[in-house]
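Run log // design_07
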């Protein structure tokens, strides 16, 4: 259920999404308010679950993680035990940045970030050793055109 917010809340959220390391003074100045009301609104947005956490974004290339694969998974097993094992395996793999269960012909899609094709193969071999998978298709991203964590508020 969506949380009710006004324009000031939205401005504060936009500023935080742009740079959460900004001081309260800087955010207040940019949104046209004072420090205490901004702090109170941020606190209320956290309590309401709108703000879930603050983190730092890293450059994968700077860390040597230059290859991004989208992994399409089809399974012939749909029982709860298989799914629990698969989800536990995916959640335990640090290479997996995102995992989604899909409607349609593909059951799951994973976003996997690794150093290179050899590192992807190591990931793939470990995954299929842990879980029986009917079909896996790996798509190498040639160029990241857009990537953002910013949600429209």
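design_07 sequence
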């Amino acid at each position: 259920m969506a949380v009710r917010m006004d324009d000031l809340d939205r401005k504060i959220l936009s500023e935080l999404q742009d740079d959460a390391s900004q001081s309260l003074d800087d955010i207040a100045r940019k949104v046209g308010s004072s420090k205490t009301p901004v702090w109170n609104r941020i606190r209320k947005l956290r309590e309401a679950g709108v703000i879930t956490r603050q983190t730092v974004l890293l450059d994968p290339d700077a860390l040597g993680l230059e290859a991004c694969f989208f992994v399409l998974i089809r399974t012939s097993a749909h029982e709860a035990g298989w799914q629990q094992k698969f989800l536990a395996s995916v959640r335990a793999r640090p290479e997996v940045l995102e995992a989604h269960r899909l409607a349609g012909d593909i059951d799951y899609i994973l976003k996997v970030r690794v150093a290179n094709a050899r590192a992807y193969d190591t990931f793939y071999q470990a995954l299929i050793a842990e879980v029986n998978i009917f079909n896996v298709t790996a798509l190498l991203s040639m160029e990241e055109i857009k990537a953002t964590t910013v949600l429209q508020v």
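The chain is about 40% helix and 20% strand.
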